C-alpha cells in the first residue's frame, strides 16, 4: 500500500481548484444518501491536497468508504487509465503500472485533467451568469461589473486551430486537450445521451447554456436534487425547442402587447399610463406562467404588480374589457360609485374565464394597490393563503400567486425581504410564488450603481434559496422557456422562484418625463433599438413560420378590436368602479337578490352557550395531559369564573371566538406572542376553523398590514385579527394602514373586516410601549366634526356603514366580547381598530357578568354612569367623559374623595364614528354639570383633538368641554416612573377639583 503514496502532489493543486469551485462541499451534503461518508479533515495541519490523496487511497481499499459520487468518479478515472492498452486491465494492474512509472505521471495527468474539466463545468454553473448577454441594449452589465471571472472561457470563436493555451491558465489544459474525450460527471447534463465529450464541445455547450441570453443563479441552493433539476432543464441539449404553433402564439401575444401600448399612445399621448414599452415580452411571459400552471392543475392565480404595465396586464392577461379601460381616460365621464376612486394604473380586477391553451377554467385576480412600491406583496400572499385555506389546498396545487416587481423597488424596499421571509413559515407559506422582475436597469432616473449595493436587484431572493433566472427580454423564446421552467419549479418544489426580465424603458418614468436629461447615453441607444416585436417577426418570417401578410393581418385584427372598444368606451353607463373589484364577495351584500337590511342583530348569546364555552376553556384537552402548574391555576380560575357567571378579558375573548366558531365563522389570530398572549393570557384551544399564529419573524409591515389584510380580503365570513405585542409596533406598517386599510373602500370599493388589536395604556413603562397612537387613527377617520347628524332609527348602523373604519377602546370584557361579534354580524365589513388594555387583563374590577353578554344584549357604544349620580342628576356638578383604562383610575379617585353624587363618569367605548346620539343624551341628562374630557395621554395625543370639535358641534358651542390630562409633549410617555406617577396624581386632582374651571372662558 506504500506504493500508492506515489500519487503526485499536482493532484493536490488540482484539488484546491476543485474545492474553490465548492464541489466537495456540495457533494458531501448530497441529500438522500446512506452509508459511510468521508468528510473534510478537521485537523489543522492536514492540507486539502493530502486530504484528496487520503480519500483516493481509502477508495482503493474500500470503495464504500467514500461518497458514491466520488466512488463513481474514481471508477471512471481508473477506466480511462486503461485507454490505449491492448487489453482492459484490472485496478490492481493499473496500480502496479503506476508504481513502475516514476511519479505515476500518466495516471495522475488523467485524474488531474478530469478534475480540471469537472471544475470547468462547475465554474460555468456557478459564474456563467456574470458574462451572459443579458442587456438588450448591449451597453450595460446586469451585475454592474464588466470583470470576467478567470475560470471562465468566453471566446468560443477562438476555439479553433489557432487555440491559445493561455486562455485556460486556471486549468493547466493544453491545445492537445481540446479534442480529447472526457468523461462527464453526474453533475451535468450537457452530454444528453452521451457520457463523454471533447473538451472543445464541452466548452461550446457550456457557453450556449450559461453565457448567452439566459443567466442562471442556482448553485447557492443547498439541495442537490433541486440543483440537478435545474441543470437538467437548461443543460440538456435541445430542450429549448418550440413548435411552429407555439411560435405563432408567442408572436400573436407580442402583437397584442405592443399594439395596445401603441394605441394608448396614439389616443392619449399627453396622459400618464406607465406603459410597458421596452418590456412588451412581459405579457407573453405572464401568460406562459399561467398556461403552464393551469396545465398542472392551478385554478386560481392571484397577482400583484406596480403601475408599469398594469393596464396592459389588465387588457391582455386578465382580459378585462378594453372599453372599461379606455373609459378611464375620458375626463368628461363621472363615476357613478361611492368613494374617491383611484387612478387607472392603481386599480385591480377579478375575472373567471377559460384558459384557451389548456381549455380549463381559471380565475385571475390582480390586487389593487397604490404607488407605494412593493406594498402589495404581502397583501397578495395573505389573499393567496386564505384562498388556499378555503379550498382545502394545503399544498398550493390549486391556488398560486405571481408577483411582478420593478428592479429598483425589489432591491430597495424592505417589505420584499419580509415577504420572502414569510414564504416558508407554516402559518404564512403559500407554497411558492413566481416573482417576475421588470428590470429596467434604472430606477426612475437613478443609475443602478447608485441605487443598490448588490450585484443584481434580485439578490434578496437568495436568502430563501430561490433560484434566479436572468433573461434578455429581447429574446422572446428564451423568456418563454424560462417562465415555463419557473412555473414547473414552483409546482415541483413548492418554493419561490425569480424571473429577472432584463429589459429597458423606452420612455421615461412616465410618458410626461424626458429621460434624455439624466440618461443620454442609454436613451440614444434606446432610440436606435429595434422593437422586440419587429425583431421576432423578422425572425419567424425568415424561417418560414409565418408570412409577412399573416403578420400584418394579426396587427390589423388587434387594431380593429381596440378601435371598436374605443367607440364603446364613450357610453357613460359603463364607468363603474365596481367593475374593478379584485375581491368580490358574491351573495354577501344581498339576500334573495335584494340588498341586505341595514340592521345589526343583538350580539349576545345564550347563557347555556356561555357556560359551555367557559367549561371548555377551563378543561384539559386530554385526561393524561400534563400541564404547567401555572396553567392549572389559570384553568381553575376560569372554571370558578364560569361557575360565578363572570368573565375576565381573556375569557371574554375566548367566548367571542368560540361562539363565532360554533356559528361556522373562521377565526384567524396572528401577531407577536398571540399563542400565549403578550401579557400571559391564554387564547382559545377550540376545535374547528380556528388558527392562532405566533409571528416570531417580527415582520410587522408584512404580517399585520399586508398579509392579514390580504387574508381578510378573501372572504367576509372570517374574523381575521392581528395583535401587536405593543400598540406602537404598528408604526412600521403605517404605509399599509394609510394606503390600504384606511382608504381601501374609498379608492377601490373594497370592504375589509380586518381587526387590529393594539395594546395601549400609560403605565409608566416608557415612551416605546405605552401608546398605540390613537390620534393617528382618529385623524384619518372620515366622519365630519362640523356636521350635525340627523338621528334616524338606524343611526348606529348607517353611521358604521358610512365610516372608513371603526375605532374602539373597550373598558370591559363584555364590550370587547360584543364588538368582536358585531364585526361579523354587521351586514357589511369595516376595519376595526381596538385599543386593548394591558393592566386591565388582570385588574380585579375589569370583570363582566354573564348578564351583560346573554341573548338580547349588544355592544354599548357609550356606557353611562350607573351609580349614585344618576339618582339625582340635577345635583351633579361635573360630568367626566373618558375612554379605556383611565376610567378605573377615575372611579377609584372619586370613591376616595367621596364624590359619587357630585361627579358622574361616562365612558366612550366607540370613539369613531363618534356616538353623537348617545353623547347628546348624556349631556342633556346632567344640565347643570360641567363637561370634562379626561384622558391619560398627553394633550396633543390621544382623543381630545378628535372629540372636542364634535362636542362643540353637538352642543351648538353653548357649553365648553374642558380638557383634563397630561400636558403636551414630544414623546408619548415618560421613561421615569416617578414622573409618571406625579403627572397621574396631577390630572386626577384636577379631575375632582370642582372649582378648577371657575371663571374660565372658552
UniProtKB/TrEMBL annotation:
Residues 647-843 form the Transketolase-like pyrimidine-binding domain. Coiled coil: none annotated. Its cofactor is Mg(2+); thiamine diphosphate. SUPFAM superfamilies: Thiamin diphosphate-binding fold (THDP-binding). InterPro entries: 2-oxogl_dehyd_N (IPR032106), 2oxoglutarate_DH_E1 (IPR011603), DH_E1 (IPR001017), KGD_C_sf (IPR042179), ODO-1/KGD_C (IPR031717), THDP-binding (IPR029061), Transketolase-like_Pyr-bd (IPR005475). The keyword Magnesium applies. Its EC number is 1.2.4.2. One of its GO terms (molecular function) is oxoglutarate dehydrogenase (succinyl-transferring) activity. GO terms for biological process: glycolytic process; tricarboxylic acid cycle. Keywords: Calcium, Glycolysis, Magnesium, Metal-binding, Mitochondrion, Oxidoreductase, Thiamine pyrophosphate, Transit peptide. GO terms for cellular component: mitochondrial matrix; oxoglutarate dehydrogenase complex. It is an enzyme of class 1 (oxidoreductase). SMART domains: Transket_pyr. It is found in: Mitochondrion. It catalyses: N(6)-[(R)-lipoyl]-L-lysyl-[protein] + 2-oxoglutarate + H(+) = N(6)-[(R)-S(8)-succinyldihydrolipoyl]-L-lysyl-[protein] + CO2. Belongs to the alpha-ketoglutarate dehydrogenase family. This is oxoglutarate dehydrogenase (succinyl-transferring). It comes from Jaculus jaculus (Lesser Egyptian jerboa). The gene is Ogdhl.
